Amino acid sequence: MKSFGYAAHSVGSPLEPFSFERRDLRNNDVAMDILYCGVCHSDLHYVKDDWAKTVYPCVPGHEIIGRVTEVGSGVSKHKVGDIVAVGCMVDSCQECDQCKKDHEQYCREGWTGTYNAPDRQTGDLTQGGYSNNLIAREEFVLTVPDGLDISKAAPLLCAGITTYSPLREWNVGPGSRVGVVGMGGLGHMAIKLAHAMGAIVTVISRSPDKQKDAEALGAHNFLVSKDADQMAAYANGFDLIIDTVPVKHDVNPYLPLLDIDGTLCLVGQIGPLEELTTPFMIRGRRRVAGSIIGGIKETQECLDFCARFGIHPEVEMINIQDINTAYERLERSDVHYRFVIDMKSLQA
Ligand code: NAP
Ligand code: ZN
After folding, report:
1. Is 229 helix (H, G, I), strand (E, B) or coil?
2. How far is the CA of 330 from the centre of ligand 1 (A)?
3. CB-CB contact of 6 with 15 (8 Å)
4. Coil, strand or helix: which one is 113?
5. What pLDDT digit, counting tens, does each position of 150-202 carry?
6. Of the candidates 199, 209, 195, the residue with the CA atom closest to the CA atom of residue 311
7. What is the per-residue burial (b if ≥16 Cβ within 10 Å, else e) of 111-143?
8. Which ligand is nearest to the CA of 163?
9. For a pocket test of ligand 1, which of 63, 116, 244 has the largest count of ligand atoms closer than 8 A to its C-beta?
10. Going by C-beta distance under 8 Å and a sequence separation of 6 or more, which residues neighbour residue 134?
């Protein structure tokens, strides 16, 4: 299938228009035209090769809303014309204990990323959603429920599920005390989702100017992480802290904020942290954990949850031609709070 999108061709180079081929439709595949694609900080990590694994040319994009254009003969879940969604994964082994538990994100063989991953059959590199079309096997294509505004829903496919999954895993519900470190794409979704689950939500941010927005998104409290007095006032104040900071940082200041048995769940930085000090962990069974996206079943649950509660990401819509400026702003944390690319702009 002929495709057209925007790709990075080398470390640090701007994204440029790029024509490429996708595999032909298989029996269990769904093909779609892409309508909208969110811009995740992970896309920027890939473009800059922060994780030393990017294969160029790389078409990023794993927050995808599309309309089905063709289905393989064995496909029963979706039909031509359906509005569908694809997140970070397009395949996994489907056989290991984790896949059988609907935890494809922990597939023992490793899942296949929507971009920058070898296709499990051909070995060809997958390419993502900053493009006009996509093919994925039906198990990894989600249903967009009525009630979601499709122009805003794309970020649910990564920022949404990445924060929904730990909120569920740590049983967040009415009265849970949840802290959110970093108010960007993931962080702002954590606020909305935790609020809808009934939690008391506190944003922990470097940026005092985000307080008004935080409250509008549903946060009850706002804590400036650089203010030692404010931080001290929250000692033992959280059951769960979700840390979305995208770079190496020091988590030690957050540990005394956890209550006994509380958990700090890292979802942002994939790589080294500043050295950990253990007293608060040992003298309080506090945990430092991590979590990656969520399984397909849970991602559908997240979409359905958002439709039911009327939760939408805060979106700044851009044209694909503006992607390099958008990356500069993402790097400066100057996004309110997720860029979404209107793929109609590709036709220009
Ligand atoms: P983002 O929109 O850039 O938001 C990150 C937020 O972290 C910023 O708004 C800022 O919030 C804070 N921050 C940024 N730079 C910082 C620094 N140097 N020190 C301290 N705080 C800083 O990014 P995102 O799209 O939410 O992604 C966040 C991270 O999650 C990325 O590393 C991404 O790769 C990763 N990610 C992981 C998963 C997963 O499955 N685990 C999924 C998606 C993304 P304040 O101004 O409020 O401090
Ligand atoms: Zn992402």
Report:
1. helix
2. 9
3. yes
4. strand
5. 999 999 999 999 999 999 999 999 999 999 999 999 999 999 999 999 999 99
6. 195
7. bbbbbbbeebeeeebbbbbbbbbbbbbbbbbbe
8. 1
9. 244
10. 22, 31, 32, 34, 64, 66, 86, 114, 128
Q: Is the CB of 186 under 6 A from ligand 1?
A: yes
Angle of CA points 266, 270, 275, to nearest 5°: 75
Q: What is the pLDDT of residue 12?
A: 83
Give the pLDDT of residue 48: 97
Q: Is the pLDDT of residue 348 over 90?
A: no
Tokens standing for residue 210: 């985000």
Please, which residues have CB less than 5 A from ligand 2, an ion? 40, 42, 158
Tens of pLDDT, residues 221-253: 999 999 999 999 999 999 999 999 999 999 999
Residue 214 has pLDDT above 90, yes or no: yes
Whether ligand 1 lies within 6 angstroms of the CB of 211 is answered as no
Residue 58's SS3 state is strand
Say whether pTM exceeds 0.85.
yes
List the Cα angle 15/21/24 in 5-degree steps. Answer: 145
Closest residue by CA, ligand 1 atom 1:
184
